[in-house]
Design goal:
279 residues; alpha/beta; Rossmann fold; 7 strands; 37% helix
Length: 279
């Protein structure tokens, strides 16, 4: 009998195993957004703040800012509050959260968790609510077609495997099935532009593919266990089946990411960036 996905929390510790690599896009996004901020004491909302690494970067860039970090994970919020006791952190859902009086809406790697029918409308809702001159700055992983994520779908869809029954009630890889553990592909840059341009002074969009040198295929597993692999693992209710799933996934990763001369592997990680200024 197929299991139902369990509501489980994220692990801030797992996420921050690659803290430097995960924070680099924060600085890249911030470097382009900060030139548009018109005050030295902005009201900032850090949407999907995680363990506070992005909030910390924002406060370093704007020491006089009033910043609120929002996340849906209690563990992430606990880690963020411990790291930045003077900042405000609140529990919230991106799809319904309100950000009154915002000068800056900043989001590092959270909008990709929304299903496609929600993603652009939610982004536009936030942008419309900004005051004139307000800045929206987001970054999302754009790796639906990358081996790291395509292989999650392939392994989950393997027939007759120890874990197969845990995915029997959904269609992995079928974008029409909202129950599936895989995330929706990110929309094309022009879709973001067309949605925001009617309300914007300007819209800046770019895509960067980071090349992370990691120890081996097992390190790639550890990376995605902190993010995109979690919905798959949450579905597998048997520890033996979960172990078998991870072993098969790592085996296929080792084939897709050949060793470099020093024995490491190179994880290509594409990300889409958007910075828009409100009319």
């Amino acid at each position: 009998m197929a299991s139902q996905p369990k509501k489980q929390d994220w692990s801030a510790t797992q996420y921050m195993k690659f803290g430097n690599e995960r924070t680099r896009p924060v600085h890249d996004l911030l470097s382009q957004a900060r030139v548009h901020v018109q005050t030295s004491t902005p009201r900032i909302y850090d949407l999907g703040c995680g363990p506070g690494n992005s909030t910390s970067a924002l406060l370093a860039a704007f020491p006089g800012a009033q910043a609120t970090g929002m996340d849906s994970s209690p563990d992430m919020l606990a880690k963020a509050s411990a790291a930045l006791p003077d900042a405000q952190f609140v529990h919230g859902d991106l799809a319904t959260f309100e950000a009154p009086g915002a000068d800056v809406l900043f989001s590092n790697a959270v909008f990709h968790w929304l299903r496609s029918p929600q993603r652009i409308p939610t982004l536009v809702r936030f942008f419309e609510g900004l005051k004139s001159g307000g800045v929206l700055a987001i970054q999302v992983p754009d790796n639906y077609g990358a081996p790291s994520h395509a292989l999650m779908r392939d392994v989950a869809s393997t027939p007759g495997a120890a874990w197969s029954s845990f995915f029997a009630d959904c269609s992995v890889g079928d974008v029409s099935d909202a129950r599936r553990p895989d995330l929706d592909p990110i929309e094309a840059p022009r879709t973001f532009y067309d949605a925001l341009a009617p309300y914007a002074q300007n819209v800046d969009i770019w895509r960067t593919e980071y090349q992370h040198a990691l120890k081996d295929a097992g390190a790639i597993v550890e990376w995605v266990k902190g993010t995109g692999l979690q919905p798959y693992l949450h579905r597998i209710g048997d520890e033996g089946a979960k172990k078998a799933f991870l072993e098969e996934y790592e085996k296929r990763l080792a084939e897709a990411y050949p060793e470099l001369k020093d024995g490491k592997v190179l994880l290509g990680y594409p990300r889409l960036f958007v910075v828009a200024v409100r009319k």
